[in-house]
Amino acid sequence: MGPQRNVRLSNRAMAFVLAGGRGSRLKELTDRRAKPAVYFGGKTRIIDFALSNALNSGIRKMAVATQYKAHSLIRHCQRGWNFFRAERNEYLDILPASQRVDESMWYLGTADAVRQNIDIVDSYDIDYIVVLAGDHIYKMDYEKMIAQHVEAGADVTIGCLTVPRTEARAFGVMHVNDEMQVTDFLEKPSDPPAIPGDPKHALASMGIYVFDWAFLRQLLLEDAENRESSHDFGHDLIPHIVKNGKAMAHRFADSCVMSGLEKAPYWRDVGTIDAFHAANIDLTDFTPELDIYDTDWPIWTYSELTPPAKFIHDETDRRGSAVSSMVAGGCIVSGAEIRNSLLFTGVHAHSYSLMHEVVALPHCDVGEKAELKKCVLDRGVRIPEGLIVGEDPEEDAKWFRRTDGGIVLITQDMLDARAAKLG
């Protein structure tokens, strides 16, 4: 036997975050940025949750693979995640798709994004790799998942949500035996298999995987030679391991981080305008389902230096106020009424304006007498004086993107087009 290393498993692991996706269901919100770079929760971006989970779990080696419109994501990582020190064996590397392997080759799939960077992962000298999607909102201790993986002697351990069987049709679903070994992997099945002993629930893949690096490295090289493969974890590698190796399911509830205020494990895919709006507005509830005030498991991010939020004017119909809302630094609420809304950094709301169930991304400006209800405002939009949104669905849909759920997305391009048409 070789020398024993007295180190935590997370010290022998790295996190590989797949952050290349556009997130096209977020429509114009991802015209200029990848989905992981979309803002969330007043100060953070979506990718901060996966990176913070890794950091808080004790993982100090990370890589972020980017592809689609990556600039704002790369800039955010450089500004907000630049505290790693190589002399302490800490790294956060950004891995844009580049002509490293083949002059014509972008990342062909999620597995190919790891394969093209095998040499970089090798240089980290790690035993385990945690493959993460960069586009979900949740708090999770990956160390517990790695421990289960090692204890079970698994080839892959798959993070799984416990969902009602009726909802599982939208996911990749695990069929498991009593030992939680995955016996079948079904992509969006019409009749999802139930968890043993729990007929009403199924196990759905979170897109989180733990591998022994030596095992995955070999598998990636073999997959690269397979012309029939789409080089994707969910479509190709995981089904292959389920069939030919040992795949274990890990329940999210076993490693979900809860502060005591949360009543149930919290995981959200904010991949649609409706889901994005709902998850942000939920944070303004009296007791939100996600506790972002938990200092034991902080969500790290790039934090700008801003003055405190400011509320001015105190007349009967011109009072700067915010009720059941979250207001970030640098905001000025000048004689405006804010209700059940979330204002990101530097939003200015002018006199006699009303914002109700509005998610306003950074540096928006809401003109006098504007009335906005159930809206998402893209970064930096200038809402013209007197604009009313949320009262007339047909009028809203004429100029802006109105979802089936009645949420209106407003971007500056839409406002400019409207202004040009109206003269």
Task: Determine the number of helices (DSSP H or I, runs of at least 4 residues).
Answer: 10
Radius of gyration, in Å, reads 23 Å
For the largest beta-sheet, the strand count, sense and barrel status come to: 9 strands, mixed
Assembly type: single chain
Average pLDDT for all residues: 92
Low-pLDDT regions: none
What general outline do the C-alpha atoms trace?
elongated
- CA distance, first residue to last residue: 80 Å
Helix/strand class: alpha/beta
Q: Helix fraction?
A: 10-25%
Strand coverage percent? 25-35%
- In total, the number of strands is 29
Site (Could play a key role in the communication between the regulatory and the substrate sites): 67, 106
Keywords: ATP-binding, Carbohydrate metabolism, Glycogen biosynthesis, Glycogen metabolism, Nucleotide-binding, Nucleotidyltransferase, Transferase
Pfam family, one: Hexapep_GlmU
Family: Belongs to the bacterial/plant glucose-1-phosphate adenylyltransferase family.
In words, what does this structure look like?
With 423 residues, the protein is of the alpha/beta class. It is built from ten helices and 29 strands. The strands form six sheets. Strands 1, 4, 5, 6, 8, 9, 10, 11 and 12 form a nine-stranded mixed β-sheet that branches. Strands 17, 18, 20, 21, 23, 25, 27, 28 and 29 form a nine-stranded mixed β-sheet that branches. Helix 2 (71-80) links the parallel strand 4 and strand 5 (91-96). The radius of gyration is 23 Å and the shape is elongated. 46% of the residues are buried. The mean pLDDT is 92. The record marks 67, 106 as: Could play a key role in the communication between the regulatory and the substrate sites. This is Glucose-1-phosphate adenylyltransferase. Pathway: Glycan biosynthesis; glycogen biosynthesis.
